[in-house]
Structure formats: structure tokens, C-alpha cells
Design a protein that fits this description.
globular; mainly alpha
């Protein structure tokens, strides 16, 4: 749970920092940077595993597919969309990733959704609704 929270916080910070830059990075550069950083972080652990289990051709193909389609493609779509909305809207929707994970875990993996998870999902959806549709204050009359 802390890893997911950390991922959401880091993604939100990344979006907001890019919005504050005098010249925001282009989506392709952002996707390349994020993918490259992910590769650098994971390589040391991958090399530790290499002597234990040599990767099969199918495993290498799966990594290449995952690197190109959901990672690079996902980043391109995400950062392209983020460039078109306010930072607060984009940061709010980073919460969709954990919701998707919970739903897919239940549907694809058959995991049980307990009351704690259901409460968390409801809280995230409520937060998204509140942050997406802020309540407008009524103007005060001068009378």
C-alpha cells in the first residue's frame, strides 16, 4: 500500500513540477525520461537475478512488449493529456491507477474486495468528484 501511495505522490509531484516549468517538457521527452529512469532503477536488480535464472525468449519478448506498449504508449498518452488540462485536474486523476488496479485484481485475478478496499475505492472516487467539480461560492450581495 505504501508503494502505491508513493507512486501516486511521485506521479502527482512530477505533473505539478512540469506544469511549473517555464517551458514544459514535450510528451515524448517525458515518456523517454520516465522509461529511461525506470530502466536505470531496475537494471541493478535484474543483473542480480541473471546468474540465477537466464531469461527465456518469451520473457524477453514480454519485457520488450511491456516496455513499448503500456509503458511508452501509456506515458505518451498520459503526458499528452496532461499538457491539455490544469495541473490540479491531472494530479487528481493519478488516483485512477490504484482504482484500476483494485478492479482488475478482482476481475482478472479473482481477488476478494473487502470492506476496507471498498471504503478506499469509495474515498478515492469521492475525492476525484470533489476535486473535479469544485463547489462554487455564492457571491455576496452588497445590500
Amino acid at each position: 500500500m505504501l508503494y502505491i501511495l508513493g507512486a501516486v505522490v511521485c506521479e502527482s509531484a512530477s505533473i505539478l513540477l512540469n506544469k511549473r516549468m517555464p517551458v514544459p517538457l514535450k510528451p515524448l521527452l517525458q515518456a523517454t525520461t520516465m522509461t529511461g529512469l525506470g530502466l536505470l532503477v531496475s537494471l541493478p536488480v535484474a543483473f542480480l537475478e541473471l546468474p540465477v535464472a537466464a531469461p527465456s525468449t518469451a520473457a524477453i519478448a514480454a519485457v520488450v512488449w511491456y516496455a513499448l506498449v503500456p509503458t511508452v504508449g501509456g506515458f505518451l498518452l498520459w503526458y499528452g493529456g496532461v499538457a491539455r488540462v490544469r495541473g490540479s485536474e491531472a494530479a487528481t486523476f493519478t488516483a485512477v491507477a490504484p482504482l484500476t488496479a483494485v478492479v482488475l485484481a478482482a476481475l482478472v485475478l479473482g481477488e476478494q474486495i473487502g470492506w476496507v478496499q471498498a471504503l478506499g475505492v469509495a474515498a478515492v472516487i469521492l475525492a476525484i468528484l470533489v476535486l473535479t467539480f469544485p463547489i462554487q461560492a455564492k457571491p455576496r450581495s452588497l445590500a
